[in-house]
Amino acid sequence: MSTAPASGEPLIRVVDLRKSYVLGDVTVHALRGVDMEIGAGSFVAIVGASGSGKSTFMNILGLLDRPSGGRYFLEGQDVSGFDRDRRAILRNRKIGFVFQNFNLLPRTSALENVELPLLYDGHARSGEDRHRKALGLLQAVGLGERAHHTPNQLSGGQQQRVAIARALVNDPEILLADEPTGNLDSRTSVEIMEILQRLNREKRITIILITHEHDIAEYGQRVVAFRDGRVVSDRAVESRRDAAAELAALPALQEEAAV
Ligand code: ADP
Ligand code: MG
């Protein structure tokens, strides 16, 4: 299956995207016709009140779900009608996810959590190879020393860093993060944003960040606001925040105590 982008096509393009959920006699219109283009290598923040359709939108972009109407073109290919299996293949190859609640397996080391997606990626890798890849990613997010800790031995910020390493293990082009700082204090949130900005800048990973916090959205290049399943504004961020610079300006913190 060729996925080479048609010339001039953005990485992501959605046209009149709609999603309805039918619950008994009630139909919830979660997306009511969204048009958007997202270029490769960009960093877009999606904001909006609870219930405005942000997660529904992310689930469709992430090929976890299918639209009820409209079109989704990924690298120029219309994927709107892809069945579960075709979506899974494409998703595993192109998309990484980070969630508010980390979604790590308990009683499983950080290293094993990061390695796990490699078991399903269809390439036969040796255990040693998986190990090396996962450890490298944990080191990149500053957790090399804690590779053998389980989630309950890690702070929230550390667990989210493990989740980011896991999201990167199949070398995705797109990282979708749904409220990744929703359960974190403000300093830890800046640390997570520093990692996302670095991945975007250095690895050219396209980042789509969902947040209801407007100050967090300002780490992106562009902010798209949803209301009632529609885009109500789409603007470039004028003075973008720089998480690395903010961290450098914060007073040094003592090494986090082991939990
Ligand atoms: P947000 O992430 O912005 O809070 P969601 O996309 O989760 O918004 O939800 C948008 C609307 O769709 C809400 O009214 C929500 O209740 C509804 N909704 C979301 N997921 C489902 C589902 N699986 N079944 C039924 N309704 C849903
Ligand atoms: Mg949501």
Description:
The strands form two sheets. A six-stranded mixed sheet has the order 6-7-8-3-9-10, sandwiched between helices. Strands 2-1-4-5 form a four-stranded antiparallel sheet, with helices on one face. With 259 residues, it is an alpha/beta fold. The protein contains eight helices and ten strands. It has a single domain, classed as P-loop containing nucleotide triphosphate hydrolases (Rossmann fold), CATH 3.40.50. The N and C termini lie far apart (47 Å). It is globular and about 50 Å long. α4 (127-140) packs across α5 (156-168) and α5 (156-168) runs parallel beside α6. It binds adenosine-5'-diphosphate and magnesium ion. The site of magnesium ion (MG) has 2 residues, from α1.
